[in-house]
Specification:
The chain is α+β, with helices and mostly antiparallel strands. It has one domain: Umud Fragment, subunit A, CATH 2.10.109.10. The protein has three helices and twelve strands. Strands 1, 2, 3, 4, 9, 10, 11 and 12 form an eight-stranded antiparallel β-sheet that branches. A four-stranded antiparallel β-sheet has the order 7-6-5-8, with no helix packed on it. The radius of gyration is 20 Å and the shape is elongated.
């Protein structure tokens, strides 16, 4: 091989390595794509929707550690979050955050109550009927969210395995905040 061909091959190899490293950094610390596998979040997400999840907003986790980068803001009620399931097999779940640490949650007559007050804001939480199933969602029983944990529910409560069944999501399991649907083309939109 002549020097010119070797130089071009080296340039191509360097470009590919740089592109792969940048893609890994972006996926690990900035944004990651996820596919919605079930109907637990209908009507917000349809089965097969593909979403982008912001990892840096809540502070991305440094791989192979439990260390998180500084967060831009803390998760808030109504945010749609992605997290590692607290029950085996460990999968990534997408649910709506309902309550944060120290808050008392109860479900009565299909409505969610936080610290004794019915949740009406954000309106998206109020627009879905929540069935009472599982140990943590029994009618009228109140549970307190432990420190560094969240209580989450699927928007399609009749078809969602969520905090009503397995309890609380540890803060360390948080992956990020869903920010937009990017596929299919007719459903592209930002997520509130």
């Amino acid at each position: 091989m002549n020097k010119r061909v070797k130089s071009q091959l080296r340039e191509w190899a360097e470009s590919i390595v740089i592109a792969v490293v940048l893609a890994l950094i972006i996926r690990t610390f900035v944004v990651q794509a996820f596919k919605i596998p079930s109907g637990s979040m209908i009507p917000t997400f349809e089965i097969g929707d593909r979403i982008f999840v912001s990892k840096f907003i809540y502070g991305a986790r440094i791989p192979l550690t439990d260390i998180h980068l500084p967060a831009l803001r803390q998760p808030r009620r109504g945010d749609i979050i992605v997290f590692r399931s607290p029950e085996p097999p460990k999968k990534d779940f997408v649910k709506r955050l309902i309550a944060t640490e120290g808050e008392r949650v109860s479900i009565r007559d299909g409505c969610i109550y936080i610290n004794g007050a019915m949740v009406e804001n954000p309106s998206s939480v109020r627009s879905f009927y929540y069935y009472n199933k599982g140990d943590y969602g029994k009618e009228g029983e109140e549970v307190t969210v432990p420190e560094d944990s969240y209580f989450v529910l699927g928007d399609n409560s009749a078809n969602s395995r969520d905090s009503r069944y397995w309890g609380f999501v540890p803060k360390k399991s948080l992956i990020g905040k869903a920010v937009c649907i990017y596929w299919p083309l007719n459903r592209i939109k930002g997520i509130k």
